[in-house]
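User: Hi! Is it possible to get a structure for several chains at once, not just one? Here's what I have:
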Amino acid sequence: METITITLNGREVSGHPGMTVLELASESGVRIPTLCNDPHLAPFGACRICLVEDERSGALMASCVTPIAPGMVVNTESPRVLERRRAIVKLMLASHPDSCLVCDKGNRCELRRIAADASVGLVDLQRISQPALIKEVNPFLERDLSKCILCAKCIRADHELVVEGVIDYIERGFASKPATLNDTSLEESDCTFCGTCVAFCPTGALMEKDSPYRGTTTTAVATVCPSCGCGCGISLEVKDNKIVRCRPDMDSPVNGGTLCVRGSYGYDFVHSEDRLTQPLIKANGSLRETSWEEALDFAAAGLKRVAEAHGPGSLAVVGSPKCTNEENYLLQRLARCALGTNNIDNGSRLYSAASCQGLGWNLGSPGTTNTLENLEQSDVILVVGTDPASSAPLVGYAIKRAVRQRGARLIMADPRRTKLSTFAFLCLRPRVGTDVALLNGLARSIVEENLLDEEFVTRRTDNFEAFRRGLDQYIPAWVEQATGVPERELSSAARMFATAKRASIVFGRGLTQQSTGTDAVMALANLAMLTGNIGHGSGGVYALQDDCNGQGACDMGVVPAFLPGYQSVDDPQAVKRFAARWGPFSPSGPGLTAVEMIQQANAGKIKAMYIVGENPAATFPHLGLVRESLRSLDFLVVQDLFLTETARLATVVLPAASFAEKEGTFTSFEGRVQALRKAIDPLGSSLPDWQIVLHLAKRLGHPMPYTSLEAIMDEIEELVPFYHGAGYAGAAGKGFDRSELEASPHGAKRLHKGQFPTGFGRFSSVHYVPAKGTAGDGYPFSLITGTSLYRFGGGSRSSRATRLIRFLPEAAIEIGRGDASRLGIASGDRVRIISPTAEISAPVRITDTLSDAMLYMPSAFPQSPVNALFGVDLDPQSKTPAMEACRVRLERID
Amino acid sequence: MDEKGPAVDPTRIGQIVERYCDQRWPLIPLLQEIQNEFGYIPPEAIEPVANALSMFPSQVQGVITFYEQLYTKPRGKKVVRVCRGTACHVRGGKTILKLAKQHLGVEEGQTTPDLEYTLDTVACIGVCAMAPNMVIGKQTHGHLNPKKVSQLLGRTGDARG
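Assistant: Yes, the chains can be modeled jointly so their relative placement is included. Here is the combined structure:
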């Protein structure tokens, strides 16, 4: 590659064309101070602090925006440079308050550091008056623009990275400042409080509000965010065993300096007063504190007793998409070897099992096929049944960047209009539960107009003919009738998708949580194969995960039908391979899925359960049935951070440590295996889940020989083919080598470069069946659920995150304007929401985003558990309960 | 933006915006045309403009507030520009401005509530020989004195000031 050589402070250095002087200098170890430059943002040249002198012309140039040119002779510390830099700093200080003593930014202030380096003290220039602190009531961040130096980092982070566009400069000259539209407070604007601007601000102008510690901590631990499946890198700042601040990990390859409100401000559930610090045992109907010894003995004895009396088939284990890979791996080994049952499942059954099943069947690989980077490179992005801006904000950012910065076209297919819709080229609004018809309609239009990728279809897939015949009925007019999407929009979407060089599909809970979820995912996979969008250099299929390790829990075999790595429990070869490591284990044939366990418990067939990090009594559908079933168990062991609704029903409660108190790995939705690092010691006598499982396994007569997490990961690597190379580098005890560990998401290895893992991608005909639970008299509304930006997971953690609750204490039910006026309901009124299964109450919010006869309510609010309303209608293939939509009626509470 | 402007026809905004959608660098010409139509840029126009040009409303606001000649508030039918140049200053321009404020009952940059007059100042209008000067609409008035200002701006039954 061509190189350019320049002389930098008397030394010859070379860089590649297009590099700036600043970049080459920092690569060569020459430090040039700067305030407005950041590697995550495009060069801007606002602050002029980074100026350098071209010795040949004598010109002073801002090095961050000056590209290197052959023969340049640059001096970064000439007397002129130093003098000018000092003058610039003085001018900045003339409009900056001297409040360093009480400024929370303290010695993290970059302006102060640069002033000190330039030996600038008190400034004798005339002071320029500055705007006052802006009064804001949000609990997350505050603005004191008197400290703003107009570096525009906040505006650029907003426009370039998270693409919200909430702030920009207003006015000019002395009056100019970053402001929202109409200069309102942030809570009146569209701000999502992601905290990215705060992380980039070099001074105290943008600060975290109500920080538990105002000073600068000496420890900052880089770990992984637990609040959705994106796997963003976070940096936890710790003071006296307490997390006092969370910022994006600027070195993470995943999030590029961004976070969302949950990541930035949701961490304090870790220090909630509700944290369990001692094991509990139920005696005479109430729980009392006890020692670990007693609790573990009691738990093991209880499980053994039930197994002996009713057989191992009467036991069931629920693992957690919030626990690490290692913990889930141990847990399934405990279930299969120590308890002898395949009745093991995890909470992601509720929303993503359909995606594993659907994608696994067609593409031969369970989960997302390409990386987030590929997604951002797409020309067309089809988003189905998800609002990434709330459920997986990082994916939302990537989509918005693709649209705004690369001109990608976004097609949204969602019954509800969401914030992302304003970025969409085309908004299809199919009726609830008609996605299969819509997707098949798209496929048929593509086949009819001969826009399919014939080479891909012929060489890399099979079963195409049968699939094509199956599409016959999906003529546009029929699809319009079934879905409500106009013919014209359907064919224009089909054309746009098929003719794009790289077209991607992003889907989430709205699709998988239907009773026809698996079919819908297969229909998606068909569409991707039809247009050749699987594999290297193409778009790809992206299955969003709501929990931090939903992908990992399934990969680790915390599912009833698969051993780790999706090796079937019916495959004698696979069983033999695992038995060689674990010793013989007895169960054969797939066990029960999560919701089936509850049903079987109700039927008296399941007698004891061991539930880790999951809260079925608040997050599963048909809560009445769930609670009754759990109550009817002979023995229930619950392992959690809090005394959840489920834990209250337990015989033994084991206190677990949170993500910040342990090590291990999470697998993100793109298949990236990332290491957690321990930031603080476990609270009270809580223990990391993996240690508890090991203790329990020993007491159940199946001691597991692992001495460290490394040993567990080594075994996972050996037995799960696609985790090869995901493991811990370096010797035990030395910690993780991040670069090794995170270099390649294993999703990237599943890119189907040459062929599909199973040889061929397989088209499967799937057909539209009007979804169950969307017809019924006396229940005129169709209620759909989704994720709120201000809650995560099942809600047991985020409902204990103080700032998130202060900002959004309660879930409101959203209703369209027309329906509201017909019912005589005003915003803020309380209503009873009644389904055939249950009823709950909530305040009403009137919105323009819903069509008639539709309601929307976010899940994960334990006080108003919307899932209570749903029946237990299972998708026949994935056994995912249909929790996307149900029929309800409303009654106003006067 | 506290002054309430006259009612603005949103369909008219839509018609203007539509014509500019596919042009290159259309923002400023588009804002100018909106201003020609309404006399100022109504706040309601910001969002349609932003959507049509794939910009953020905050960015459009940034451009509007940056340029002196783009107005966010309704302007009067006649713009009164009092010269604050050196020659006018030594000939009593300061007093002329004070009188203009009194007659109109508004401060610099403000518009009378009946939307008849907007009072502005300018640095120099280039007819220093006639100082002190002011411009009303397109008409320049020189050799001003209090009587003349009263004739020009005094309004019947005027009780303001």
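Chain B touches chain A through 14 residues (CB under 8 Å). The beta strands of chain B are 78-83, 117-122, 134-136, 139-141.

User: Great, thank you!
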